[in-house]
């Protein structure tokens, strides 16, 4: 099992562990066990008992939740180096969502009990977990707003603006497929593709395969904020 980054680099670049000293990392890293996943393979499913925290060493995963009827909505995408499944470590509950590899992925599993013991002697780590959990909560609030308010045209516009903000540039690679974006917005792929094509025809964006350029960000923002 190998990745582009060494095990130490993966942990030191992860938001949760970036503030740890070299000595602290030395005591944490041996606790983690490497696991490999093929694209489409599930790391864990919603409702399963929490094994521990996953530290992504390579690849990308999607976090999704299913309704009782079986309908699925994508909550977020996470790419290495990052972590998933922080909250169940502390609230004692099951995994609240499912995580699936979008591409071939290597992740390090930090067992729950071992990680809790580590946190008891390293108080900076729980604070980092709270910061990440806060960021995730903000993302979920925005997701609820996106799938609840406004037309599908507005939802797609807001999603494009969010992607541009995350990349820090007006030109970026679309981080999800049309199908995955549809799951995130609560619709189907054809509707997403149709709205993207309309934005391009109206001169707001330019698309070349997965690359998107916001040609008229103000117009797109006005579209996203209409009637909200």
Care to describe what's here?
With 228 residues, the chain is of the alpha+beta class. 43% of the residues lie in helices and 24% in strands. It has helices spanning 7-13, 22-28, 88-91, 112-121, 124-148, 152-167, 178-185, 189-201, 217-225, and strands at 33-37, 42-44, 52-58, 60-66, 72-79, 82-84, 98-101, 105-111, 171-173, 205-208, 211-214. The strands form 3 sheets. It has a 4-stranded antiparallel sheet. The chain has a 4-stranded antiparallel sheet with strand order 2-7-4-5. Helix 6 packs across helix 8 and helix 6 packs across helix 9.
Outline:
This protein is of the alpha+beta class and 228 residues long.
What attributes does this structure have?
228 residues; alpha+beta; 4-stranded antiparallel sheet; 9 helices; 11 strands; 24% strand; elongated
**SSE topology string:** HHEEEEEEHEEHHHEHHEEH
Number of strands: 11
Beta-strand content: 15-25%
- Would you identify the regions where 5 or more consecutive residues have pLDDT less than 50? none
Evaluate the radius of gyration. Answer: 19 Å
Shape: elongated
N-C termini distance: 48 Å
The secondary structure category is: alpha+beta
Give the topology, please.
Elements lengths: L6 H7 L8 H7 L4 E5 L4 E3 L7 E7 L1 E7 L5 E8 L2 E3 L3 H4 L6 E4 L3 E7 H10 L2 H25 L3 H16 L3 E3 L4 H8 L3 H13 L3 E4 L2 E4 L2 H9 L3
Antiparallel strand pairs: 1-8, 2-7, 3-6, 3-8, 4-5, 4-7, 9-11, 10-11
């Amino acid at each position: 099992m190998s990745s582009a980054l060494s095990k130490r680099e993966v942990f030191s670049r992860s938001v949760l562990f970036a503030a740890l000293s070299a000595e602290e990392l030395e005591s944490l890293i041996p606790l983690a066990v490497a696991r490999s996943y093929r694209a489409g393979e599930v790391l864990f499913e919603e409702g399963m008992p929490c094994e521990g925290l996953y530290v992504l060493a390579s690849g990308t995963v999607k976090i999704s939740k299913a309704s009782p009827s079986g309908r699925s909505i994508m909550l977020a995408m996470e790419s290495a180096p990052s972590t998933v499944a922080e909250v169940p470590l502390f609230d004692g509950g099951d995994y609240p969502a499912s995580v699936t590899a979008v591409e071939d992925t290597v992740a390090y599993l930090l067992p729950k009990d071992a990680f809790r013991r580590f946190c008891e002697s390293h108080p900076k780590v729980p604070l980092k977990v709270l910061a990440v959990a806060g960021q995730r909560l903000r993302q979920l609030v925005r997701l609820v707003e996106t799938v609840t308010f406004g037309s599908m045209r507005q939802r797609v516009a807001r999603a494009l603006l969010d992607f541009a903000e995350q990349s820090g540039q007006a030109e970026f690679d679309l981080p999800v497929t049309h199908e995955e974006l549809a799951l995130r917005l609560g619709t189907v792929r054809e509707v997403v593709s149709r709205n993207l094509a309309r934005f391009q025809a109206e001169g707001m964006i330019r698309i070349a395969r997965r690359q998107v350029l916001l040609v008229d960000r103000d117009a797109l923002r006005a579209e996203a904020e209409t009637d909200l």
